[in-house]
Write a structure and sequence with these properties.
Blueprint lengths: L5 H39 L13 E6 L4 E3 L8 E5 L5 H5 L1 H9 L6 E6 L3 H10 L6 E3 L2 H6 L7 E5 L5 E6 L4 H11 L8 H4 L3
Parallel strand pairs: 3-4, 4-5
Antiparallel strand pairs: 1-2, 1-5, 3-6, 6-7
Length: 198
């Protein structure tokens, strides 16, 4: 039988412990990632408001406009909420539709563009894009109440606050047709350079 030196035993013990430590760290990282994936899946699987549910009141921080509270107890027109971000490429591609929705609102619906961006960023965005209508900042809790996640997102609410329809994302040709029909408007479509993005 071979005699092992003390140095060999120590090296063997250290290597095994190092491997055991690496294994434990790996298991810990995998468990942590699995929990994160489960949380993300739960967040993505949130169901949109069923048609007919009543929209909660919404505090709007005006950018180049007065602050106001949007409540649906005395509404005269349906409300079209347009969720966007100044840094969103698809929102930029959808900008001509955004402006067309605002310009055609008149007595058909109230157009309310909302974002969680800072007031400074929204003011710069409105000025640079020459928006001739107010934009509003909402809180993250309000965005959660309305289940706004990705931008852009368009949500139609009746004058009395019932959720009617949601159109998530930039306006694909089929989505564009649905929105035009639902709102009796004509929209220019998505800018071609963004529709080629993957």
């Amino acid at each position: 039988m071979r005699k092992l030196s003390l140095a060999t035993l120590l090296r063997s013990f250290t290597e095994r412990n190092l491997l055991l430590l690496l294994l434990l760290v790996s298991v810990g990282v995998n468990v942590s990632l699995a929990l994160k994936v489960r949380q993300d899946q739960a967040a993505l699987s949130q169901k949109p408001f069923p048609t007919g549910n009543i929209a909660p009141a919404l505090s709007l921080r005006g950018v180049r406009a007065a602050d106001e509270s949007l409540s649906f107890d005395h509404g005269k027109l349906p409300v079209l909420l347009y969720w966007f971000s100044p840094t969103c490429g698809w929102c930029e591609a959808n900008l001509s539709n955004f402006k067309a929705l605002a310009s055609q609102a008149s007595n058909k619906y109230r157009f309310v563009p909302v974002s969680m961006a800072s007031v400074t960023d929204l003011d710069s965005y409105a000025r640079e894009r020459k928006l001739g209508f107010p934009v509003y900042r909402i809180s993250s809790s309000a965005a959660k109440q309305y289940r706004f996640q990705g931008t852009p997102d368009t949500l139609l609410v009746t004058a009395r606050g019932s959720f009617v329809r949601r159109w998530p994302g930039a306006y694909s040709p089929s989505r564009l047709t649905e929105i035009e029909k639902a709102l009796s408007v004509e929209l220019p479509g998505v800018a071609k350079q963004a529709s080629n993005r993957k």
